[in-house]
Amino acid sequence: MDNDELSRTVKVVRSWLMEARDNVLRQIDSRLKVATKSSRSDLVTNIDRSNEQFIVNKIREFDSKAKILGEEGFGDQVTNSDGRVWIVDPIDGTMNFVKQRNHFAMMISLYINGDGVLGFIMDVMNNELLYGGPDFGVFLNSNQMTKANNLKLKDGLIGLSGPMVIHNDFNMQEIANTSLGMRVYGSAGIDMIAVLKGELVGYISYLKPWDFGAGRILAETIGLKITTIDGHQLGVLSSEPVLLATENAHHDILTIVKK
Ligand code: IPD
Ligand code: CA
Ligand code: CA
Ligand code: CA
């Protein structure tokens, strides 16, 4: 994509997210229609759905030939990463949204033939938007972000998934113990923003393509490492236990995982 097209795309996606944010805020005090999916903690609301429908409509108007992978099913059946693929998580951290009306995100990313081009994560209640990609740089609202500080695991806080800590998957308790402390925020988007801003040295969770699609592009652009929990490359469409961290913390965590 040339620079003009990148700038144009960033501008238009930012405007969708701003409008989507206004739509969510307008309904924030309304009674939500909440349904469960795979389990009692796997929720979807009328706003997850209307937000995805809104974003998918915008993408279709802007980029009619692209494929769209949306968590709530308003996009296409995407079976491979050929061509232009947009990935949408309309509300990330639905449980937080339902129980706290806070600490949730909206995420959009664009991949072309499997390469990450642009990622967008919006922390709705803090009005923080992180966006960009390898040929654009990474911005927090209007400020360009610099390369991530390469802290070790023992020198920082780590964001973890609650269930992984409870079940001690992949030696998670030793990872938490080695760090300065663990945090469980309950939204991959909010956790990834914290890693991108240097508030956390890393984040580990089981994730789906819409949970890590945007964060992966932003993270790699500012020199963070994102792989499967055992250090392998992530597929665009795969669901995996994901490890995002500074290069040093990534190395420290892999050593503990492989013990
Ligand atoms: C979930 C959140 C959660 C993470 C789960 C995700 P959702 O996304 O990001 O923090 O641990 O794996 O599925 O369903 O609220 O969009
Ligand atoms: Ca969900
Ligand atoms: Ca999600
Ligand atoms: Ca979601």
UniProtKB/TrEMBL annotation:
Its cofactor is Mg(2+). Its EC number is 3.1.3.25. Keywords: Hydrolase, Magnesium, Metal-binding. It holds the Pfam family Inositol_P. InterPro entries: Inositol_monoP_metal-BS, Inositol_monophosphatase-like. GO terms for molecular function: inositol monophosphate 1-phosphatase activity; metal ion binding. Mg(2+) binds at E71, D89, I91, D92, D211. One of its GO terms (biological process) is signal transduction. PROSITE patterns: IMP_1. This is Inositol-1-monophosphatase.
